[in-house]
Amino acid sequence: MNVRLVHLSDTHFGLEDKGAVEAALAMAHDLTPDLTLVTGDLTLAGRPAEFIAARAWLDRLPRPMLTTPGNHDTPYWNLALRSLTPFNRWRRYIGADKSAVFEGPGVAVCALNTARGAQLRPNWALGAINLSAVDAVAARLTKAVGCLNVFACHHPLIDVEGAPVSGGVHRGDAATRTLCEAGVDLILTGHLHNPFARPLPYGGGCSYIAGAGTLSLRTRGAPASFSVIEATADTLMVTAHAWTGSHFEAFRTWAFPRRKAPTLSAPSPGEAGSKSRV
Question: Which one of 147, 211, 253, 263 has the minimum C-beta count within 10 Å?
């Protein structure tokens, strides 16, 4: 069956593009997606007022919806809170901060939090991922036979060539390999503020990573945008819709072949007869 996802990211309420976030909300409803997916950095600095604005916007998006945090969804400038209780505000205003799962007709999605409040490296805002949690996700998605299997997080698990910033995810390559070998079709991320899509080097070349742009004023050489994913039995298409200042219009499209599910050959008449006598 065909599946449509609306993928939004990096709204950065507090410095959001007000026209873009409202128009994206309206267009998301027009698209009637099977799932709306928001991959973090809802806020600019993790302030309560920003979370309240983000929550009000999320409440108006089409359901079902799945969210996961980004590094800006911690108390960005409060070192004590960011180090000790980085996702208390996320949990209070948005919901679960560690993992999220959606299973619907033709699609299965699991999300993990790659953001951290503090790390033992100078740039704490880079990503990290728990491989035990990835193993659990992979095991769950492996069971979703015949579905579009999607993994979502904020930071790209591997560096994207030509990107303006790095996700820098600790254990990201190992996580990517595990997910692809489990048959994950698509990894969706944010963080870069520029949309992209590309095949991954694992999973027989039929696993892909795609990132949505930003809906904030913090653009990095590309317009504010969001993405739509449309999957058929044969094709996976990612379309980035760019904000012109008055409306959204498609400006980048990527199309990839879907992984073919293994098929069992029918037994020969002799084999069938032999089995019937057992």
Answer: 263
pLDDT by position in tens, the chain (length 278): 899 999 999 999 999 999 999 999 999 999 999 999 999 999 999 999 999 999 999 999 999 999 999 999 999 999 999 999 999 999 999 999 999 999 999 999 999 999 999 999 999 999 999 999 999 999 999 998 889 999 999 999 999 999 999 999 999 999 999 999 999 999 999 999 999 999 999 988 899 999 999 999 999 999 999 999 999 999 999 999 999 999 999 999 999 999 876 544 444 444 444 333 22
Of the candidates 80, 73, 96, the residue with the CA atom closest to the CA atom of residue 9: 73
Q: Which domains does the chain have, with CATH numbers?
A: 3-276 (3.60.21.10)
Angle (deg, nearest 10), helices 172-181 and 131-142: 10
pTM here?
A: 0.93
